[in-house]
Design brief:
82% helix, disordered N terminus, binds beta-D-glucopyranose, 0% strand, mainly alpha, single chain, Growth Hormone, Chain: A
Length: 469
């Protein structure tokens, strides 16, 4: 009897160290998300001064802005293959160094061509890290905490965006765009140091038959009472089921159809519901809504950034209890309603002095609902629903769709504003959010609490989505 409290405390110390190990791994990998957010957010502020330094034409401005998105779209195509072939860790490590190189190169650019080249390089890194980071975290995380740990990556994206707004504001007076772009090297360097010491994903190790190494990693990443041998046996069993169709041919397997449909569908919906019109163009939107000074619009934009971070924290805290579906359905419904209020406000009250506050509040509500739903859950689900044998490549395919539609929305938004006016433009995004809700309701399964291997088997058994939860 006297020994019981001691063994309980020993177990709790072991449990604590396991928890902190997985948390440290996830937080380090999530620096990839921080870079994603920072590098996509920073350009809007830097652009004002780049125009002066390089005498950019409107077309060139568009090229500088979309260089990252184009690089990201293309890179996601081959990034998945690299992660499956060489492992998650080496890919993350090389990316970290390239991030540092890209940031320094863009900060030192003496010609617009070099600047565009550096931004494309950063885009390549963002495209790959955007899915390899969640993939790596998901494969290390215990099922009960996977939602929160993977979503740390989304939290880091939102923090990166917010930091980029703050950095832009800090250097706005001096116009020091080289600092704005160059500071991205700092998280890149920390990520590189972290990846030098972090382990490879245990699932990738099993796939490569490096069982002893996989066991060592799992021993550190699981609680004392976890059955490591059983977990390894489960992974091997699933791999054996996949062996029949190796490589890209595996994409044609019947068990791949639904996950691909859901992954690509959510990828497109995450973008066509318009989030980045706000993230990239919020000051323009607020000026159109009646804010007269640029500084007031920029401040309102920073407010949007804060809401994005805070609501992502809320999502993170409840995602493993409430489940993915509830958050996705609440999020898309809330996005549709807030966009509707914004669009109707523009149509009928755009000229009223109080309208700008309705605009700010509805845009904040919209971003908040994105942050608890489509934001984290898209990246989480695509790290969970694909079979191990092709997980990297399949996530790459969904990610290509995500970046491709991100680019499309970024390129068409300003034209839509001009041709259709803000009310109709945002009504279209509201309609697409309703499509998002219907899609989630009918097709998205509940993955909470299931191991990645169970999820894979559910597809093979063709278990109806409604019966997963
Ligand atoms: C999306 C990005 C978006 C960000 C905003 C991410 O999940 O993929 O396109 O800029 O969320 O927080």
């Amino acid at each position: 009897m006297t020994q019981q409290p001691q063994s309980a405390s020993v177990r709790s110390v072991a449990g604590d160290s396991t928890r902190s190990f997985t948390t440290v791994v996830a937080m380090t990998a999530a620096l990839g998300g921080l870079l994603f957010g920072y590098d996509t957010g920073v350009i809007s502020g830097a652009l004002l001064f780049l125009k002066g330094t390089f005498g950019l034409s409107a077309a060139m401005e568009g090229t500088v802005t979309s260089a990252v998105l184009a690089g990201a779209t293309v890179a996601a195509i081959f990034g998945g293959w690299l992660a499956d072939r060489f492992g998650r860790r080496p890919v993350m490590l090389v990316l970290a160094f390239l991030f540092v190189g890209g940031a320094l190169l863009s900060a030192a650019a003496r010609s617009v061509e070099v600047l565009i080249g550096a931004r494309v390089l950063i885009g390549v890194c963002i495209g790959v890290v955007s899915f390899v980071a969640p993939l790596y975290i998901a494969e290390l995380a215990p099922p009960a905490r996977r939602g929160a740990l993977v979503s740390l990556n989304q939290l880091a994206i939102t923090i990166g965006i917010l930091v980029s707004y703050i950095v832009d504001m800090t250097f706005a007076d001096s116009g020091a765009w080289r600092w704005m772009l160059g500071l991205g090297a700092v998280p890149g360097l920390v990520l590189a140091c972290g990846m030098l010491v972090l382990p490879e994903s245990p699932r990738w190790l099993v796939k490569r038959s490096r069982l002893d190494e996989a066991r060592t990693v799992l021993l550190r990443a699981r609680s004392e009472d976890a059955d490591i041998d059983c977990e390894i046996a489960d992974i091997r069993e699933d791999l054996a089921l996949e062996r029949n169709a190796p490589g890209w041919r595996a994409f044609r397997a019947p068990a791949m159809r639904w996950p691909l449909f859901i992954g690509i569908g959510l990828a497109i919906l995450q973008q066509v519901t318009g989030i980045n019109t706000v993230i990239y163009y919020a000051p323009t939107i607020f000026l159109a809504a009646g804010f007269h000074s640029a500084s007031a619009s920029i401040l309102a934009t920073a407010g949007v950034g804060v809401v994005n971070v805070l609501l992502t924290v809320v999502a993170l805290r409840i995602i493993d209890r409430a489940g993915r579906r509830v958050l996705l359905l609440t999020g898309t419904a809330g996005m549709a309603v807030s966009l509707l209020i914004f669009a109707v406000g523009f149509a009928y009250g755009g000229a009223l002095p109080g309208f700008r506050w309705i605009a700010v509040l509805s845009v904040m509500a919209y971003v908040g609902f994105f942050a608890i739903g489509l934001g984290p859950i898209f990246w989480l689900l695509i790290s969970e629903i694909f079979p191990l044998g092709v997980r990297g490549r399949a996530m790459g395919v969904a990610t290509v769709a995500n970046w491709g539609f991100n680019l499309l929305v970024a390129l068409t938004f300003l034209q839509m504003l001009q041709a259709l006016g803000p009310a109709t433009t945002f009504l279209i995004y509201a309609g697409l959010s309703v499509v998002g809700w219907l899609f989630a309701f009918h097709f998205v399964p509940e993955t909470r609490g299931h191991s990645l291997e169970q999820i894979e088997r559910f597809w093979i058994e063709r278990r109806p989505v409604r019966e997963w939860g």
